[in-house]
Design brief:
With 346 residues, the chain is an alpha+beta fold. It has two domains: 187 residues, FAD/NAD(P)-binding domain; 140 residues, D-Amino Acid Oxidase, Chain A, domain 2 (2-Layer Sandwich), CATH 3.30.9. The chain has eight helices and 20 strands. The strands form four sheets. The protein has an eight-stranded mixed sheet, sandwiched between helices. The model has no long low-confidence stretch (mean pLDDT 94).
Length: 346
């Protein structure tokens, strides 16, 4: 078989790597000059088992094992804390999936977070969580599948005929993993995926920590009032924070510059009031966000074209890459429920 993969973000590149390992001929198209340079950009991401769906918990647990096979240092096992919001629902899903967790109803003071003041309950402690070393993932996948990448913009699809750089490439099957461009390309082959996008930015602050504080967990905080955030240590002396702003503030038609500035102001104010960090931004990481996709994964097929779509997919990528590669070869359509069931039976 000859398979085309559109998008060399982490999902597309992992799919290409799995196909290479299986001895399948693959070409991976990437419109930017670098791989994993858009929605998969950055050096670190939160890893967690903490989801509200037990099937997603199982997939994340399998991905955790996959990261371990890729390399012992792929995920820094510092744990993950979820406070407020749906922490109790996540704990219930983890328990249903057989994953270790601890739910505390009262405010906690021993969480090792760089926070000023108490953290309100409920508080979920996910001991299998941590931080993904994105640079290590990138290096591994490039080493396996970097030679398959063609840096060309895909202009359109006609079934499994891919038009890129003025040339039509023909394949037996195509996998769409093009991040923000997936919905538009999928529509050309009759697949309807959520197409709304908004702007998002993550900001990094100096973290004046002693060496013994290096084991700080990742943190997802959804207070009853105030800014909802995700946070994690992103390197020695660095603490990264992303905030969830009002949809109108980060809407696509607002523009990347204005949305990033509004996000910066909100997160900086939050850091001054709530965090034990130096209140100055030392790094800004911009990406696009799809607000209509929730925390899951969507798979859709039209003939021999298979599309994958979702948010926060980095933590699932060892499972996703293998599943998409296998489905591209055998013509099946994966589902979260089906993958979870297969894991439960294994």
């Amino acid at each position: 078989m000859r398979i085309g993969v559109v998008g060399a973000g982490v999902v597309g590149l992992a799919t290409a790597a799995s196909l290479v390992r299986s001895g399948v001929e693959v070409v991976c198209f990437e419109r930017s000059a670098v791989v994993m340079g858009e929605r998969s950009a950055g050096t670190s991401r939160i890893f967690r088992l903490a989801h509200v769906d037990a099937d997603l918990v199982r997939l994340a647990a399998a991905a955790r094992e996959g990261f371990a096979r890729w390399g012992t240092a792929m995920v820094d096992p510092v744990g993950c804390v979820v406070s407020g919001g749906d922490a109790a629902e996540r704990a219930a899903a983890m328990t249903a999936a057989g994953a270790a967790c601890e739910l505390r109803e009262a405010a906690s003071t021993d969480l090792r977070l760089p926070v000023v003041g108490p953290v309100a309950g409920p508080v979920l402690v996910d001991p299998s969580g941590g931080v993904v070393d994105v640079d290590a993932v990138r290096a591994l996948l490039v080493g396996i599948a970097g030679h398959t990448v063609v840096h060309e913009q895909v202009d359109g699809l006609d079934g499994t005929a891919v038009r890129a750089g003025g040339v039509t490439h023909r394949f037996d099957a195509v996998v769409l993993a093009a991040g923000a461009n997936t919905a538009a390309l999928a529509a050309q082959v009759g697949v309807d995926l959520p197409s709304t996008l908004e702007h998002h930015a993550r900001f990094t602050f100096p973290l004046p920590d002693p060496p013994e504080a290096a084991r700080r967990p990742a943190w997802i905080d959804s207070p009853a009032s105030g800014l909802r955030t995700y946070q994690h240590r992103s390197g020695p002396g660095r603490w990264s924070v992303g905030g969830t702003l009002d949809a109108a503030t980060v809407a696509w038609d607002v523009g990347a510059g204005a949305a990033t500035q509004a996000s910066r102001e909100a997160v900086l104010e939050y850091a001054r009031e709530r965090l034990a960090v130096a209140p100055r931004v030392v790094e800004t990481l911009y990406c696009t966000h799809a607000p209509d996709t929730g925390d899951g994964i969507t798979f859709a097929r039209s003939g021999s074209v298979l599309a994958a779509w979702g948010e926060n997919l980095m933590k699932f990528v060892p499972v996703l890459g293998e599943a998409l590669a296998a489905a591209a070869v055998d013509g099946s359509t994966p589902s979260v429920r089906g993958l979870s069931a297969a894991l439960a039976e294994a």
